[in-house]
Structure formats: C-alpha cells, structure tokens
Amino acid sequence: RRTGTEALEEYYRTVKTTAKEGGREEFLVAGNDIPGFSLGWPRGELDMVSTEVTPGWGLARGSRGFRLPPFGRYAPFYKLGREHAQSRFVNIWFYNDKFEQELSNQTMISTLYYEMLANHTLPMFHPSNDRVVGTPESNAEFFKFVSRVAPEYGDRVPVEEIGLYYSSSSVLSKFTPAGIKRFDNQPHQFAFWGWATALGELHYQYRAIPEWKLTKETLNDLRVLILPDSEILDPDMVDEVLLPWVRDEGGLLLVTANTGSRFGESTNFELNPQEFCVSPLTGVEHTEVALDKNLNPIGDGKVLYLKSPIGFDFYMAKDQTERIAKLPTFQACINNLLMDSEPLAVEVSEGRSSNVGVTLYQSKSSRKLFLDLNNYGVNPSGESMVETGTTKVFIQLPESLHDKKFIARAVAPDSTPEVSVRPTSIDRMFLTVGPINHYASVILSPKN
User: Fold this and answer.
1) How far is CA 357 from each of CA 69, 194, 409, rounded to the nearest angstrom?
2) Distance, CA of 20 to CA of 238 (rounded, Å)
3) Among 200, 173, 349, which residue's Cα sits nearest to residue 261?
4) Three-class SS of residue 315?
5) Contact by Cβ (8 Å): 193, 61
6) C-beta separation of 52 from 96 below 8 A
7) H or E stretch including 349?
8) Span 336-373, pLDDT tens digits
9) Cα(100)–Cα(298) distance, rounded to whole angstroms?
10) How, if at all, do strands 439-446 and 419-425 pair?
11) What are phi and psi of 191, to 5 degrees?
C-alpha cells in the first residue's frame, strides 16, 4: 500500500509538471476503481474520481451489491469517492450489468442521475457502449438542466456536521493472496455503507472521513464522529487526535463493535493484546463484559459505545421495509449524543421519508444556501415514480447569516415546487417545499 501510494503521488506530480512545461496549465488526471478497489492507495494526489459502478456485484459491495432504488443508495459511494481527490465533483460510469431491463427505463435512469446531481456527481456518457446507461436524447435533456443551474450553483459546497470514518486499513486487512477473506461478510466496509445509507435516509448532513484525513483540523468542523466497526486503529490516533477532541473540544464520538482491536500498518495489523485501544474513550475494556450500549462523558464531550454492528446489519437487510424498521435505532444513537446541544443544520419536521434525499449546500461567495431534494420513490421495475409529499424543514443558519431574511425559489427539471420560507429565530428558519417528481433545489438568497 505504501509503495503504491508513493508511486501514484510521484506519477501525479510528474504528469502535472510535464503538462505545465508543455503549455497545458489544466490537465486532468482522473482515477478509476475508487473507492471500490483502491484500498487506501490514492490519498488526494488526484484531480477527480472518475469511476465505474454497477448495481450488482462489486469488490467493496459483495455479491448482492447496492441494488437499485428505492432500496439502493449511491450517495455514500459518491461521498467517499470525492474524498480521494481534489475536485468538488465525481464522475460516474454507471453500468447496467444484469439490470438491463430496469435500466432501460428512463424513470429509473433519471432517479439515478438526480441522486448524482444532489451529491455533486455527474454521469459519464459513452454512446457506443451498451453497458453504460442512458440514451443520447435522455442524456442531452439531463445536461440541459445541469447547464442551466450550474451558474447559479457556482462555488457551493456541502454543509457537513457528522463525520463517518472510513478505514481503508480495515478493508485491506481482510485481503489474502486469493482475494477478500469473506467476500459477502466485510465488517468495516459494509458497516460504512450501512451507516452512510442510514444517515442519508434520516437526512443527517454527513461527510466521509478516510483515515488519512482524520486530523485535528478535520474534526474542528464536525460535531459528531462515527467509527463503524473500524478494527484497525492506531493508539496514537486515539491519544493525539480523538481524545483531545472529545475532552477539550466537546466532540461527540460514536464507536461500534470491535473498533481498535488491531494495530495499524506499522505492525502488520497485529491484534491489540489489550483488546481495544479505544477503551480510554469508551470505558469498555473487553467485549465479553461490555454492555449493549455505554455512554461515557469525557471532559466537555462524550463517547457512545455500541456493542452491536448496527451499520453492518443495516447494509445486509433484505429489503427496504427491514431497513426502515432499523432507522429509529440510528436516530436514537445520534439523539443520545446531541442531547442538550444546538439543533442540527437540517431537521425535517413533516414529510420525513427515507425515500427523499436532503442535502444542504452553502456558497461562501454569494452567501446563498441550497437545499437539494432528490426522490428515490421509483417503482422497482423502473417504470413509474411516486411523487413526494410536501416537505417541511428547519434550517440552522451559519453565524454569518444570523438575523438575515431570505428569498426562496426552486429550480427543477420538470414541475417546479412551490416554496415558502420564514424565520423562527435569528439563527433558524422554516422552509416548506411542495411535492417533487425527481429533483428540486431550493435556492435561499439573503436579502441584505
């Protein structure tokens, strides 16, 4: 892994330097198979992730794969991919392998495309390749809308307050010369996908934090950090980064299952003889004596430990009904940590549905806020769409926008929903968005 990372970084620098010497100031270096099979090799020395994905079999997804909406979600894949490169965007080659019938329907394709748009991702077109979804006509229609809204979206970036840790070392440690040790039982990888999907369905604003980005600077911008079944964790990370963040900065940490039971790369993923290097945080020494749940106050912050791998179980659920039944457990965990804290950036009060994606963006230059809504409510056959109901949302304003009044309007590729906005306090506003078909973005512009 170290040799691969060093080689990739040197290759990137060489290409960039040579291109500049040849008069090419802008020369794109993109990377494929990220994050599906990258194992922590690329660590930011890359312009953009441009990668293949299919609804079924995948090295990081098991033989079942993500599947298609309304069950399947790809936002977690896009968010994690984006953290591997410098661009705000991800480029996806979406293949129809073994889902040719479902992905011959434009309704299903549009559902996928607008999930992409809501998560700063765009599809790559390949008209001569029958594996890549979309037709020239439907692709042109989609990008006509993208071209229309791009100038308005400008330099917007997502508002993120929950971090979800991705341990590529925990994934790498499960590899053997013959491949992944248990292909359909990948503890950390599946736990990450499960937690990310659950956070999205509960409308929490989260960010993927790969292990090389778990720093004091990254944590300064987060309220909650989740370590999902992260077997590999260096004690130095606990002592130098996590413990000071919780104790001194009031950080809220959630740890699950066997996190920290093995050391990192320097000792070849050896077992920790003391079982958990996170015990100073969790207060849990051994799994056999651990309670199902343990809340441990430390200084100004607190740590919640869960014995059960709930993220893994969520990913492995057989259908959407089973997943919906599990969502209250995730919500209760976040509520336990956030008790008596300031409200979240986004709280859906009415019209809450796991079939609606909700993503908040902010433009630093224009000070506008953007609330993107995308609809997952597609018939499994891909032939029809269930329109969302009216969505009512509380938005917590950043300090720079306190005591501002806003003008709200929506943009959409089809029927534009009615929107209204009113302040509820100097730092909070209430937004109502009418029903949407595939996607809408509510643009909130400060009046002064």
Assistant:
1) 12, 16, 19
2) 41
3) 173
4) helix
5) yes
6) no
7) strand 346-350
8) 999 988 889 999 998 788 999 999 999 999 999 999 99
9) 53
10) unpaired
11) -65, -40
User: CA 24, CA 246: separation in Å to the nearest integer?
Assistant: 46
- H helix count then E strand count, the chain: 12, 21
Burial pattern 243-270, b for ≥16 Cβ within 10 A else e, equals bbbbbeeebbbbbbbbbbbbbbeeeebe
The three-class DSSP label of residue 301 is strand
CB 237 within 8 A of CB 174: no
Q: Is the dihedral of CA 375, 35, 85, 139 positive or negative?
A: negative
Which two structure tokens, joined as six digits, stand for 196?
Answer: 């990310």
Residue linked to tokens 């056999």: 288
The residue length of the chain stands at 448
Task: Give the integer Cα–Cα distance in Å for 186 and 190.
Answer: 6
DSSP at 42 = -
Interval 65-72 mean pLDDT: 96
User: Exposure of 278 by Cβ count < 10 A (0-12 exposed, 13-18 middle, 19+ buried)?
Assistant: buried
Q: Give the separation between CA 447 and CA 327, rounded to whole angstroms.
A: 38
Pairing relationship of beta strands 157-158 and 356-362 according to DSSP bridges:
antiparallel
State how beta strands 121-123 and 346-350 pair: unpaired
Distance CA 272, CA 285 (A): 12
pLDDT grade, residue 291 (50/70/90)?
confident
| Residue 125 clears pLDDT 90, i.e. is over it | no
Question: Residue 187: its pLDDT value, please?
Answer: 97
d(CA 335, CA 268): 37
Q: Are 47 and 8 in contact (CB under 8 A)?
A: no
Distances (CA, A) of 113 to 75, 106, 121, 158: 11, 10, 8, 18
Neighbours of 120 (CB within 10 A): 20
Cα dihedral value 231, 234, 239, 241, nearest 10: -90
Rounded Cα distance, 43 and 10, in Å: 12
